[in-house]
């Protein structure tokens, strides 16, 4: 599941986009009572990292990072020495809650200036909706068939590539948060997330 988990206690610490009703719920205990099978509690990026290592592109690499960029946020599943890393405060890989600037927008986690609040999918969608309301995003609207609710992240990237100024400015701002040069914005964000919202990176012998 997406969110911060106290894996040693197998309970949910925080899930930003679902509100607070699951916070501090001992989720493993619930599923162990329902199903006669071993239950492992791990967040979304961590689970995908395990899946990629076991069945996917990582091919049982001892050291790898799985990067997640999608609707639920920005994060990473980090495997070192064949084991998923959780961190001392159970926040290993929570890239989306790294503070990027001194002053910036509020994040759903309760803090400010988080990468997720600046360059996450929801933040980008909020900015593009405002740009459309202000009369921008003409190329984007054309791609969306003139219907703003149909706008997707991939449409924003495509519109930026063909010269939509509003989309280009938003993509550039998001890319700078990832340390990407403006000229690489579209390509870098596309390589960071596949059409399903994430992309695995296997780094043999090194975690970075």
Write the H/E string, N to C.
EEHHEEEHHHHHHE
Strand % is 5-15%
Count of helical regions:
8
Assign the structural class, choosing from mainly alpha, mainly beta, alpha/beta, alpha+beta, or little secondary structure.
alpha+beta
Helicity range? 25-40%
Radius of gyration: 18 Å
The main sheet orders its strands as: 5-4-3-6
Largest pleated sheet: 4 strands, antiparallel
Shape: elongated
Strand element count? 6
Distance between the termini: 24 Å
Total domains = 2
Which segments are poorly predicted (pLDDT under 50) over 5 or more consecutive residues?
A: 182-208
Mean pLDDT: 76
What features would you highlight for this structure?
alpha+beta, two-stranded antiparallel ribbon, 6 strands, 13% strand
